[in-house]
DNA sequence: TGCCAAAACTTGACAGCGTAAAGATTGATG
DNA sequence: CATCAATCTTTACGCTGTCAAGTTTTGGCA
């Protein structure tokens, strides 16, 4: 078959099939050999386009990130000013990943934390650090006689939790940026209240 | 050797060696066979204690989480009141993972985001969504003629970034908690400003 | 005490994986 | 038309997780 020996667009096809497999079965199911055979190509063919599996995965991540960027740029255009643009971007960022949880797991990890965010509920397998934070927050409200609606409480709890978890994610999973002084950032309490 | 055929404490030994390997070479280097041979035991011996590799990994995660919990509980005890306890826990949470980045990667993912948090710097391979957020934030400051110290700007930027990223992490990587209404939470702007 | 079932561990085997080397096929270029 | 580089196939290797069957040890019961 003269028209299939040279695939013509194998690089893009591999990325596409890779994304499809991740969406259908998660990252663990992604193997070079499966992607190759999904493209009707031998298991070693990808090596003409990618140095190794990591390079294919990197290309897939770039492709997914481009989709996310398109959404965020859209939010910026739709915003009346920069301030609302920031909030809009944040919302798009969160909702993009909420609509594609497998993408987030693929880009950033594979753990499934369980945490009952609802104030009046709890689960046996809740992530212990979160449970501790939640209990302490409720105690804080009680001690100081603070009355808030359920929603307000949950929002506030979630904000604290997201700040800490997000900061840890950024601090630990960022490449080395030597000039940034984390200790200086953390010495005050601004970041966490 | 009657005293080594039955290891006596293989389960704990496997967990310990697993943690050691992760600390030394990262999660990718963790294989059942390596952990087993590090315990001077055949490659199938772990199956007497763990159903499969995932179950060993789960046990290792539990062990690491216990270490983290000990630190957080320490912070609670050291705090004068619940309010400072919250801030203290957040700090411990972040600093625990900063001191053990491999633990965070192991627990939550394997991605290395690159993002120049310093206002006056940038890198070619910065995570695009972060770059967009940063640029928009700087534009917002300029448009409104807001003057702040470098540090204040960086703190504020980091807070916004951490909120969004942390929320996405929580929203996407949490187990299903049916009664929690994410849409209700996200419909207002409280969470992101 | 002696025995026996269950627990702990070994050995051997299998399919799937990533990857390297060598050869076949193709399209483009001179 | 000849040639060469790019692309793809074939073959092979070691490593992996897992299973099945056999061996050793332990603990408890007759």
> What is the gyration radius of chain A calculated from CA atoms?
22 Å
**SS strand fraction of chain A:** under 5%
- Poorly predicted spans of chain A: none
SSE pattern of chain A:
HHHHHHHHH
Please describe the biggest sheet of chain A, giving its number of strands, its sense, and whether it closes into a barrel.
none
Q: Tell me roughly what share of residues is in helical segments of chain A.
A: 55-70%
Structural class of chain A: mainly alpha
SS element count, helices of chain A: 9
The interface involving the most residues is between: A-B, 84 and 84 residues
How would the global form of chain A be characterised? elongated
Assembly type of the shown chains?
A: homodimer
- End-to-end C-alpha gap of chain A: 66 Å
The total count of strands of chain A amounts to: 0
Mean pLDDT of chain A: 78
Descriptive account of the structure:
2 copies of one chain form a homodimer. With 193 residues, chain A is mostly helical. In chain A, α2 packs across α4, α4 packs across α5 (82-99) and α5 crosses α6 (101-108). Chain A has helices at residues 2-5, 10-25, 32-38, 53-78, 82-99, 101-108, 128-143, 150-173, 182-187. Chain A is elongated, with a radius of gyration of 22 Å. Chains A and B meet through α4, α5, α6, α7 and α8 of A and α4, α5, α6, α7 and α8 of B.
């Amino acid at each position: 078959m003269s028209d299939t020996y040279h695939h013509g667009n194998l690089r893009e096809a591999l990325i596409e099939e890779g994304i499809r497999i991740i969406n259908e079965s998660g990252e663990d199911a992604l193997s070079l050999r499966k992607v190759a055979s999904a493209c009707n190509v031998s298991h070693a063919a990808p090596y003409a386009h990618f140095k190794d599996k990591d390079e294919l995965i990197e290309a897939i991540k770039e492709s997914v990130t481009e989709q996310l960027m398109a959404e965020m740029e859209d939010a910026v255009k739709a915003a009346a000013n920069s301030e609302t643009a920031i909030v809009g971007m944040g919302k798009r960022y969160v909702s993009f990943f909420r609509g594609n949880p497998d993408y987030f797991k693929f880009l950033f990890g594979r753990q499934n934390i369980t945490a009952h965010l609802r104030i009046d509920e709890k689960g046996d397998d809740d992530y212990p650090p979160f449970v501790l934070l939640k209990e302490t927050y409720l105690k804080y409200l009680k001690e100081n006689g603070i009355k808030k609606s359920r929603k307000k409480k949950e929002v506030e709890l979630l904000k604290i939790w997201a700040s800490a978890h997000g900061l840890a994610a950024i601090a630990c999973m960022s490449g080395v940026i030597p000039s940034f002084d984390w200790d200086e950032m953390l010495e005050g309490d601004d970041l966490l209240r």
